[in-house]
Design a protein that fits this description.
The complex is a heterodimer.
Chain A: E1 33-37, H1 47-51, E2 57-60, E3 63-67, H2 77-81, E4 89-93
Antiparallel strand pairs in A: 1-4, 2-3
Chain B: E1 2-6, H1 8-19, E2 23-26, H2 33-44, E3 51-54, H3 58-71, E4 75-76, H4 81-86, H5 88-96, E5 102-107, H6 121-125, E6 132-135, H7 139-154, E7 162-167, E8 176-180, H8 183-190, H9 217-246, E9 253-256, E10 263-267, H10 271-284, E11 289-294, E12 296-298, H11 302-309, E13 314-319, H12 330-339, E14 349-354, H13 363-379, E15 387-389, H14 394-403
Parallel strand pairs in B: 2-3, 2-4, 5-7, 6-7, 10-11, 10-13, 13-14, 14-15
Antiparallel strand pairs in B: 1-8, 6-12, 9-11
The chains are: A alpha+beta, B alpha/beta.
GO molecular function (chain A): 4 iron, 4 sulfur cluster binding; metal ion binding; oxidoreductase activity, acting on the aldehyde or oxo group of donors, iron-sulfur protein as acceptor
InterPro entries (chain A): 4Fe4S_Fe-S-bd (IPR017896), 4Fe4S_Fe_S_CS (IPR017900), PorD_KorD (IPR011898), Pyruvate_synthase_PorD (IPR053389)
Protein name (chain A): Pyruvate synthase subunit PorD
């Protein structure tokens, strides 16, 4: 998060007048479990990218390359929707 | 300008016709029903451009009004009593989102027991919800205050919702002589509504009402408190502008025969009119009495209260609501708080609770109050607890206590 603003510097009524500024709000510290990718099992179907509620699946040239750990809250949806035959994403306890 | 015979409800409906809001959402409740009935007739007759939304409850009425206001519309609703109580959750949301909604409230008692008549319990409960509250003494003031409220609410340094109140039945259903301004005078006075943020402005997308946690919630609430302070500074400028178009000058408070008054009685709403009559009568008998009407109750006119009470020997404060469990009624609490720590800290103040559930307050009752205040002035003995005026059994109760030598 940027430096916190003072009360008289804020838009009226707590309006967010800058679209997409949720990117500045780092929610990675909320995580208990973090997703870990086994790239050898991944076939880049990108179902995880469709389902991730926090835009935290990083894709480059149509390929899954990793996770945005600054914003991923560790909800585990990516691991859940990863197809049974691949199971390329596993959730592991943070700080282990 | 034209003179019309209107009830308080009709006068406010007339003001709303001239304001011509973009959206009005409403649900009927006695004694507000007649107000919206009249306004929906204007809608049906095509006299306004308003999108009229008939909803299934007051919670929805204010929610729809909040939605319309956030979308960028000039939006209004009106209610009473249980309706205001049902709006409770949304009152704070309208204020927190800083939406300039104007809502006439026709004051009525709260259940239980169920009662449809006038007292101030409904709006007094909402006094700290972040809404500006303006009380009207008569139909003329209800009309004027509704128009003024639009300018107050929409002032860019204020941006707060405003309740304009009038006493249920006593004002809402009594026909009076009302001076109504010309339509285009009102139109020019209120001007176009151009909010800085509107949800329907798709070229400048905004989010309203987002999650606001430990890091910013407090800052937003602090800013909201400052908006109320700004209102306290700016309402007089808007009142002054209204004087120029109407010839009627309003202020935060209205003093009556106060300059040399020893005894001053403070009140809100229609009772202030009765007090003026009694003051005239007692003045003829040589008693130095005066009245002080509070028109703007939120923000509370703390400086004016101090100023106008500075020469008083004793003060009575009339509350048409009980603040259960509190040392005194809500208006009295505010008056005492405003004087605390000033040179008037020790000014004797007696609180009178009266008129609940539409119980009449007569000139006779007010003469009694002035007489009691005169006794307090001479004896210096100030009752600690509120006096209940016009309730059967109270005099026996006080007698009983006096016999038992319990100091009240």
């Amino acid at each position: 998060m940027n430096e916190l603003k003072k009360w008289f510097e804020l838009p009226v009524g707590a309006v967010i007048d800058e679209p997409g500024n949720a990117i500045k709000y780092k929610t990675g510290s909320w995580r208990t479990f973090k997703p870990v990718l086994d790239k050898s099992k991944c076939n880049d179907c990108l179902i995880c990218w469709i389902y991730c509620p926090d835009n935290s699946i990083i894709v480059q040239d149509g390929k899954l390359i990793g996770f945005d750990y600054e914003h991923c809250k560790g909800c585990g949806i990516c691991a859940e929707v990863c197809p049974d035959k691949s199971k390329a994403i596993t959730m592991v306890l943070e700080h282990q | 300008m034209k003179v019309m015979a209107l009830t308080g409800n009709e006068a406010v409906a007339e003001a709303m016709r001239q304001i011509n809001p973009d959206v009005v959402a409403a649900y009927p409740i006695t004694p507000q029903t007649e107000l919206m009935h009249r306004f929906t007739e204007f809608v049906a007759d095509g006299l306004v451009d308003t999108e009229m939304v008939l909803v299934e409850s007051e919670h929805s009425a204010l929610s729809a009004t909040v939605g319309a206001s956030a979308a960028g519309a000039r939006a209004m609703t009106a209610t009473s009593s249980q309706g205001l109580a049902l709006m409770w959750e949304i009152l704070y949301i309208a204020a927190g989102l800083r939406l300039p909604i104007v809502m006439p409230v026709v004051n009525r008692a709260l259940s239980a027991p169920i009662n449809i008549h006038g007292d101030h319990s409904d709006t007094m409960g909402a006094r700290d919800s972040g809404w500006i509250q303006i009380f009207s003494e008569n139909a003329q003031e209800a009309y004027d205050n509704t128009i003024i409220a639009v300018r107050i609410a929409e002032h860019p340094d204020i941006l707060l919702p405003v309740m304009v109140t009038m006493d249920g039945f006593i004002i809402s259903h009594t026909m009076e002589r009302v001076e109504v301004l010309d339509d285009d005078v009102v139109k020019n006075f209120i001007g176009e509504y151009n909010p800085k943020y509107k949800l329907l402005d798709v070229k400048n997308p905004v989010t309203m009402g987002p999650l606001d946690l430990q890091d910013y919630y407090f800052e937003h609430k602090r800013a909201q408190a400052e908006a109320m302070e700004n209102a306290y500074k700016l309402i007089k400028e808007i009142d002054e502008e209204y004087y120029k178009i109407s010839g009627r000058r309003y202020s935060y408070v209205e003093p009556y025969e106060i300059d040399d008054a020893d005894i001053i009685l403070i009140s809100l709403g229609s009772t202030a009119g009765t007090i003026k009559d009694v003051v005239d009568e007692l003045r003829l008998k040589g008693l130095k009495v005066g009245g002080l009407k509070i028109r703007v109750y939120r923000p509370f006119p703390r400086d004016e209260i101090k100023e106008f009470l500075s020469n008083a020997s004793v003060v009575g404060v009339m509350d048409r609501a009980i603040a259960f469990g509190s040392p005194c009624g809500p208006v009295c609490l505010d008056v005492k708080a405003s004087l605390q720590g000033t040179s008037l800290s020790n000014l004797p103040i007696v609180n009178y609770i009266y008129g609940l559930g539409g119980r009449d307050i007569t000139p006779k009752d007010i003469i009694k109050i002035f007489n009691e205040l005169e006794k307090v002035r001479i004896s210096g003995e100030v009752p600690n607890l509120p006096r209940y005026v016009g309730v059967r059994g109270e005099e026996n109760y006080i007698e009983q206590k006096a016999k038992l030598k319990i100091k009240n």
